[in-house]
Structure formats: C-alpha cells, structure tokens
Specification:
heterodimer, A: alpha/beta, Rossmann fold, 2 domains, seven-stranded mixed sheet, five-stranded mixed sheet, 14 strands, 19% strand, B: 416 residues, alpha/beta, five-stranded parallel sheet, 38% helix, 8% strand, globular
Chain lengths: 324, 416
C-alpha cells in the first residue's frame, strides 16, 4: 500500500465507516459540496448523498444539539467543527447536554466531533487552539488526539464505533506534512491505549499529537549524547492510559511531559499528580514539563515560535532531567 | 385570517383531556404537600394554570412520536405514558426513580418505549436536539414528529435561534411550543422582548406559527393536532405560542410578590381546569357520576404511587461512580422503515453541486407590501424534500406571487 497523509487517513476512515454502516452520517459547515475547510470530507457527498453529508448553517450549538438528537435514534453522527476554536460556541451543548446524557438518564450519545486543532500554521489566536483540557475536565466525554496517519485512521474508526461522545482533535500541522503506510483491511486502533514510539531506559517523554514528533526528534538527538529516552504517545487523552505511563516511569524513573497546550491546567500537571500518587518511590528526579506559554496563541511567526514548545526546549529539559 | 383548524373533539378525547389536567394538578398538589414535609430534595416547580398547555399539546402526539419536556411539563409526561410514581421518585431522589437518583424533577427520559428526551436546566438546548430527533426520524423513514416546549424567557437564548433556524432550514418535523406564561423567574415578558406575540419569530425563520389560548385545553389540542399533521406531512417545523400565566412563583421558594395582584386575579378567573369542567358539564359530557369516577381513579393512582415513592430507598452511594461512559451496547438500534439501499451507494450518490437559481440581487418588487407584512417564506420553497425527506439541495427560484400566497396561508393564526 502506498503511504498516505494524516488527512487521507481520516478521510479513508470516514469513507469506510459510512460504507460499512448506514447509521453513520456527517454533519457540519461546508463539508458537502465544498468538502470541508481542509478537504477532509471531499468526495463524501458525491458518494453518500445529501441525507448523509449534511451542510449546516453556521450554528455550532445547533449542529452538536442536532447530532445528539440524531444519536438518540441510533444514528452515529460525525460532526465537523471547522476549527476546534469554535467549540467554545457549543460548550454548553457539549458539556451539559451531550456529556451528561448517559450518566444521568442512561441515554448514550454515540457521536464523534472532529475538529482541526493546534498551532504552527500561523492561524492566529482563533484558529490555533488546543482546548482539550476543558473537555478532559468534563466527565462523559472522550478525547482523542492522534499523531500519525495510521492512528488517525484507526482511532477514527474506533471513535465512530464507540458508544460515547468522542472529541477527535486533528492537528492541522500534521494534515499534509507526514505520510505513512497503513495496514490493509479494517484497521482499528482502540481508544484509551497509549503507544510506545521509542524504547529507552534513561527517561520517559510523554507526549501526543504534533509534539509527539517533536519529542521523537529530541529523542534521536539525545541518543547521540548517550541518553536513551522512551517516548510514549498518549493518542487518547481521556480516558488516560495511566497504566502505560506508570509502567514507563517504573522502567526509566524519570518523567518529562511535552504538550502544545498551555502550561497551567494542561494535562502535564494531571499526569505529574498521577505519577506522584501512584509511582512516587520510583521517581529519581522531579517531573518536568515542556509546554506552550500561558498566553493566547499569537499570530506573527516570531511570536508563535516563541509561544510553541520546540525541539531545543525538549532537549534542554531532558538533559537537565537526565543529570539526576 | 380565518382558521381552518378542525375543532372536532370526541367525547372520549374530551374526558381524556380533563382527566390528564386533573391528574397533572393532583400530582403537583401532592408534591406541594411532600415539599412542606421536607420530602422533596431539591426545588419544586409548579405548572398551576398551565396544565391545559402541557396536556393539550402532548395529547396531539402519537405513541411513536418524541417529546422533550421542560420543567413545568409534568402534564405532557403523564400524557406520554409516565406514571405519577416516576414524577414523585424523581423529586424525592429515590433509587427507584427513572434516573436512579442521578437527577431530579422532570429531568428524565426513555429512548426505547416512551420516546422522551430528558431536558437540562439550560434553556433552549432542547430545540436543536429535538430538531436532530426529527431529522433522524426522517432519515430512517419513520414519519415521526418531535415536540418540545420553551418559555417566553427561553426564546431569548441563542440556542433557541440556532435550533429554530436549523429546524426551519431542514424542514424538520418539530413542534416548538412557546409557553408564554408572562414571567421568566421575576422578569416580565416585556423585559425579554419588545414584541407582543412571540409567534412572530416564526416569520423570520420561515416556518408556520399558531397563537392559541393556553387556558383552553381543547383549542390547544386541536391546534397542536394541526401542527403535528403539518409536520408529519413534511411542512414543519411549527411554532405554537400558547398564552397563559404562571400562577405561582418560579419555584416553591418564590412567593412571586413582583406579580400584580390584579394579574393573578385576572388569570385565576380563567383557570383551565375550571373552564373546561364548566364547558363539559354544560354539554353533558361530564355528569356528576363521571366526574366522581375520574376523581376516584386519580386519587387511587396518586395515593398508591406516593406510597411507592415514600417506601422507596435512596440510591446506594456507590452508583455515584458508575456510568460515566457507556461500556455496553447501545440500548437502541436504528429502526429503519425505508430500504437501506436508498442511503447507500450507488443509490445515494449525487452530483455535488449547489443549484443556485436565485442570484440574490436587490429586487424592488420584493419590497412591495413588506412593511407590516410577512417576508417571503423562502425556506418553504427551497430545495426538494423528497419522499424520503432529503436535505435541501439548494434554493430554487420561486414565483413571488405564489410565495406570497403560501406565506399568507402559512401565517394563519388561531385566535379565539
């Protein structure tokens, strides 16, 4: 099989799931005739028709609400939010209606909310966000944030088949920048399972999405210096694969967490707390964090570069941690 | 404009409407007593004076249809098949309640049998959700109608607007009942909106609307029956504004001192149950024996269900940790009532392009008679909603005279 992009991985998943299950429909802004702002849904309307690829008004609350209502009759809607930043517009519908539905009255909401996310493409303060933690803090939602074409496809297929609301973050920096061969057949990657991208014994780097690649790049550099980093790609943030994190920390005794989200309230703090609670005696050094600045995402390239974590930031933190 | 609403109501239907209003009120009176005995865990919201709306609207639905109540729609829940014990155990936070104590009041639902969607406390959010229910029903070929309610205050939310607009654009089979009970907590309707009739909103959405006396249960029923029929025929959504009055405070804790005494007195003389009782007695439908029979039936039902609720345990604490995620299979599966092949390739495949026939330029003709009149009901004309109820494929040019005629027809209001 020829290598495909991250974007193509998602597109293939949508095609295959819609072919497989007539209950799967897509709904969102500009997804049909136009094929989506990033062309992820290109070709779906031609194949599956107006009833299954639904172009909507600019109404994030109505889109999420309608998808929720559809799911109550057994439909599995895949929503596209044009940019994840606009998820703020439907915050109430997601956090109060969708997320609590099953816990409160036993009505599952099998819905996927796809959302292009992340920075590094000079999208500015309203087209670059990483708002995963608002939703990680909302019991009932699952949050997926893949880093490879293979995972993007396999996790999307798993998300569509999951019986819970899944927020599926698609890092737009990755959309067309990486390619990979994908396993043939019905390729499923289970939700809630992290992946060890690189084995190592000196320290653990936990990361996800675009920063998983930055972490891998740093690990390659560190190896030249004789530091063997284990890189763990979370893939799903909620539910969090605590076992994989603890297992790696027990092996390396040092933990560095790298994410593109802002520092305060980012998932790194949560992971640090979990490791302190469950593997404190295995730590040989402080838990370290490399994250974005605690600011909005600025627009101008030098500002955004300052805002985002990079390979040098990871190297600096890893070297310091390795000295313990 | 003269209404064409079919106003015929059978004796059996009349007695049903009366029974459910009485049951609604008895259930709520019973809960006031339970509240005074500290047996209601949280707040208690009254629909006193609005029973005709809950009962008359929901009574127009069929079993296959879906509804989503608001906090004061106990009557609608009873009509749809909920038992008084469901209401009591919900308010008393018992393990036997439909939500097993996880939520209270009318916040519960049933996907499988009764087709009820549970509300949340934030206003307006049910409208997009019930739009989705209607869209899914159409997609599956079910010919169902969804119904939900909103207060005068709730129409001020963004979710109301987004939901109504999507519903209208999709021609969704949804009935949105605006219960104009004059007060949103302590705020009069004049502080919500500068217009008299909330149903006027429908003009701008491009959907039909009716205004009805919410204290006349038969008028509410026959209007709702027409609205439901329009929706089932693919001509939804429909807004029904039912004018009424909230005869208590926002909830039990609120004495509603901000409401002028004269206003309460005015509406008290228009109590929907007293009015209907008088009418049914005058027409001979409700004689003393029939009335006594209904009262005895209600008393027996309510007494048994209060006992059931009072004897029910509180939930075991450990279930607080359960059911954040659905780990098992879905409780329902899609009920297809059309050939699945219609929505699968190759039959589903289309040419992906908009049909743009109206280029949208300023037209002087279109301004004619606009002031004080109705804007074009363009959504009604747009797109082909085929037998299977497809999405709108794109706007098609409409004949302006025909459109105006359609608009006038669609704007028929029921005034009594």
């Amino acid at each position: 099989m020829a290598p495909i992009t991250f974007l193509e991985g998602i597109r293939q998943a949508l095609f295959e799931e819609m072919e497989r299950d007539p209950a799967v429909v897509c709904i969102g802004e500009d997804i049909g005739v136009y094929g989506g702002a990033f062309k992820v849904t290109a070709g779906l309307l031609e194949r599956f028709g107006w009833e299954r690829v639904i172009d909507t008004p600019i109404s994030e609350t109505a889109i999420i609400g309608a998808a929720c209502g559809m799911s109550y009759l057994g439909i599995r809607p895949v929503v596209e939010l044009q940019f994840v930043d606009f998820i703020a517009c439907c915050f109430n519908q997601l956090t109060n209606f969708v997320a609590k539905s099953y816990y409160l009255w036993g009505a599952p909401v099998p819905m996927v909310v796809r959302a292009p996310s992340g920075g590094g493409v000079h999208g500015g303060p309203f087209h670059s966000a990483n708002p995963e933690m608002y939703f990680g803090h909302t019991p009932g939602l699952k949050v997926v944030y893949p880093s490879t074409p293979s995972d993007a496809k396999g996790l999307m297929k798993a998300a569509i088949r999951d019986n819970n609301p899944v927020l599926f973050f698609e890092h737009k920096f990755l959309y067309r920048r990486i390619k990979e061969e994908i396993p043939a057949g019905d390729h499923i990657v289970p939700l809630g399972k992290a992946a060890v991208r690189r084995e190592g014994s000196d320290l653990t780097i936990v990361s996800y999405a675009a920063m998983a690649h930055t972490s891998m790049e740093a690990a390659t550099e560190l190896a030249k210096e004789g530091i063997e980093a284990e890189v763990l790609d979370l893939r799903t943030l909620f539910p969090l694969d605590k076992e994989a994190i603890i297992a790696s920390v027990k092996k390396t005794n040092k933990l560095l967490i790298v994410h593109e989200d802002t520092k305060t309230g980012g998932i790194a703090g949560e992971i640090a707390a979990i490791v302190c609670e469950e593997a404190f005696e295995h730590l040989d050094g402080p838990v370290a964090r490399v994250t974005a600045l605690d600011t909005p995402v600025p627009y101008s390239p030098p500002l955004e570069e300052r805002f985002l974590p990079n390979v040098n930031d990871v190297l600096r933190a890893a070297r310091e941690l390795a000295r313990y | 404009m003269k209404s064409t609403t079919n106003t015929s109501v059978s004796r059996e239907q009349q007695l049903d409407l009366y029974y459910y209003m009485r049951l609604n009120r008895t259930v709520e009176d019973t809960m006031v007593n339970l509240f005074r005995q500290n047996k209601i865990v949280g707040g208690l919201y009254s629909s006193l004076g609005q029973e005709g709306i809950s009962v008359g609207t929901a009574y127009a639905l069929e079993k296959r249809d879906w509804l989503a109540p608001m906090i004061r729609n106990i009557g609608a829940l009873l009509v749809k098949g909920c038992r008084p014990r469901d209401i009591f155990t919900q308010h008393m936070a018992r393990f036997t309640s439909p939500t097993r104590g996880k939520d209270g009041t009318s916040h519960f639902g049933d996907l499988k049998d009764l087709h009820i969607v549970s509300p949340i406390s934030m206003l307006g959010d049910l409208i997009p959700v019930m739009t989705g229910v209607a869209m899914a029903g159409r997609y599956l070929g079910q010919k169902i109608v969804s119904m939900t309610w909103i207060g005068d205050g709730g129409t001020s939310t963004g979710a109301f607007h987004e939901g109504m607009n999507l519903a209208a654009q999709q021609r969704a089979a949804m009935v949105c009942v605006i219960e104009n009970n004059q007060w949103a907590y302590s705020t009069p309707v004049s502080r919500q909106v500068p217009i008299k009739d909330l149903a006027d909103r429908a003009r701008a959405y491009g959907c039909r609307a009716f205004i009805v006396d919410g204290n006349d249960v038969e008028a509410v029923f026959t209007t709702s029956r027409e609205a439901v029929a329009l929706c089932r025929a693919g001509q939804g959504p429909v807004i029904i504004e039912a004018k009424s009055m909230r005869m208590r405070g926002h909830a039990q804790h609120d004495p509603a001192e901000y409401v002028p005494d004269e206003m309460f007195a005015y509406w008290k003389a228009r109590d929907p149950i007293a009015l209907y009782e008088k009418r049914l007695a005058a027409s001979g439908v409700l004689d003393a024996k029939t009335k006594a029979g209904i009262e005895a039936r209600i008393e027996k039902e309510v007494k048994a269900d209060v006992e059931f609720a009072e004897n029910s345990p509180f939930p075991p604490p450990e279930i607080a940790e359960e059911s954040v995620y659905c780990e098992g299979p879905l409780p329902i599966s899609p009920q297809w009532q059309r050939p699945i092949a219609e929505v699968q390739p190759p039959r589903s495949s289309v040419k992906a392009e908009w049909q743009v026939a109206d280029f949208g330029a300023f037209e002087r003709d279109a301004m004619e008679g606009m002031a004080g009149s109705l804007p074009a009901d363009s959504a009604a004309e747009a797109g082909s909603t085929d037998g299977a109820g497809g999405s709108n494929h794109g706007p098609k040019k409409k004949a302006s005279a025909a459109a105006k005629k359609a608009v006038r027809k669609s704007a028929a209001k029921v005034r009594r």
